[in-house]
Amino acid sequence: MQRRVCVAPMMDCTDRHCRYFHRLLAPKVGLYTEMITARAIVHGDPERLLAFAPVEHPVALQLGGSEPEFLRRAAAIVRAGFPYDELNLNVGCPSDRVQSGRFGACLMADPELVADCLRALAAEWDGPVTVKCRIGIDAQDDYGFLAAFVGTMAAAGCRVVIVHARKAILQGLSPKENRSIPPLRYDRVHRLKRDFPDLEIILNGGVDSIDKAEHELNRVDGVMIGRKAYADPCFLAGLQARCLDGATPPVPDRAGVVRKMAAYAATHVAGGGRLQQVTRHMHGLYAGQPGAARWRRYLAEAAACRDADADTLLRSLELFEAAA
Ligand SMILES: Cc1cc2nc3c(=O)[nH]c(=O)nc-3n(C[C@H](O)[C@H](O)[C@H](O)COP(=O)(O)O)c2cc1C
């Protein structure tokens, strides 16, 4: 699994259509699914939840859960039919819904339980089992707490820890506020890398420029990008060029990507899906370019069309190019 540059798991964002789109722009970056709960996999429709296109590799599945037995059963289902490159356990999400299920960030308070969860996953899964966590929760926010948590993960066999470099405040802040209000503490993640040199430590949170990514890559093993990648997906092309290929960022062939997405959408619509499920991830394609707002409007109009299909998307591109 390539994690030196990777895209963060984001609910309602990094579904398979989004990942396909990101893959066209950046063939090498690591991709993560949105969080899928172990219970949903065990009780629900694994094909609908887990299927992905081979071109998405390297791609990791992020799981939510805190019941080792459910996680074990989920891992067995994944192993039997869905060749992901990694299983990642979410120990960073602060939403109420997630806390009431007793998983996500609140699990940082119970490292032994997280270790049991990792061992349960590893019992059914030969590939890497990784963790995504915060630097702390509520008042448990000193470096010692983080180091003890990571030490317990390492003792359970985990070799890769992805750290969102801000603590989670479990009461009183919404998940959105929890992604901006607690300050970023990259220094904590750097120290973690120094103290656990054998672990692969991936830094997440606020990496929104290529320069910042390059700077951080001197201190940690990888950077994980969330909101910037979704809002401005061409950023991934530049990031891959500079940080993975050692090359000058290319001028992305945006129109070419739209044409490839139209071919992809044609298959999706032919299978009974809706165009909007694919195009909703493409609003940021022209971010920072002249006509960015116009592109978003064309996509919104196309999605509102009854019976919108891949040709609707191609017509949006024609209109966009004609007005440029
Ligand atoms: C819309 C949205 C959904 C998210 N869903 C998840 C999720 O399912 N699992 C998870 O571990 N983190 C989730 N996150 C947090 C991101 O993975 C990431 O840790 C956070 O956005 C900070 O990185 P950034 O500053 O690069 O965006 C989500 C973030 C956003 C914006």
Question: Topology, pairings included?
Answer:
Layout: E1 5-7, H1 16-25, E2 31-32, E3 36-37, H2 38-43, H3 46-50, E4 59-64, H4 68-81, E5 86-91, H5 96-100, H6 111-124, E6 129-134, H7 143-155, E7 160-164, H8 186-195, E8 200-204, H9 210-216, E9 222-225, H10 227-231, H11 234-245, H12 254-270, H13 275-279, H14 292-304, H15 310-323
Parallel strand pairs: 1-9, 2-4, 3-4, 4-5, 5-6, 6-7, 7-8, 8-9
Bound molecules: flavin mononucleotide.
Flavin mononucleotide (FMN) binds at residues 8-11, 13, 34-35, 62, 90, 92-93, 132, 164, 179, 204-207, 225-228.
Short description:
The chain has 324 residues and is α/β, with parallel strands linked by helices. The chain has helices at residues 16-25, 38-43, 46-50, 68-81, 96-100, 111-124, 143-155, 186-195, 210-216, 227-231, 234-245, 254-270, 275-279, 292-304, 310-323; strands spanning 5-7, 31-32, 36-37, 59-64, 86-91, 129-134, 160-164, 200-204, 222-225. It starts with a strand and ends with a helix.
Description:
With 324 residues, the chain is an alpha/beta fold. It folds into two domains: 5-245, Alpha-Beta Barrel (TIM Barrel); 254-323, Four Helix Bundle (Hemerythrin (Met), subunit A), CATH 1.20.120.1460. The chain has 15 helices and nine strands. It has helices at residues 16-25, 38-43, 46-50, 68-81, 96-100, 111-124, 143-155, 186-195, 210-216, 227-231, 234-245, 254-270, 275-279, 292-304, 310-323, and strands spanning 5-7, 31-32, 36-37, 59-64, 86-91, 129-134, 160-164, 200-204, 222-225. Strands 1, 2, 3, 4, 5, 6, 7, 8 and 9 form a nine-stranded parallel sheet that branches. Helix 4 runs parallel beside helix 6 (111-124). It is globular and about 60 Å long. The mean pLDDT is 95. Flavin mononucleotide is lined by residues 8-11, 13, 34-35, 62, 90, 92-93, 132, 164, 179, 204-207, 225-228.
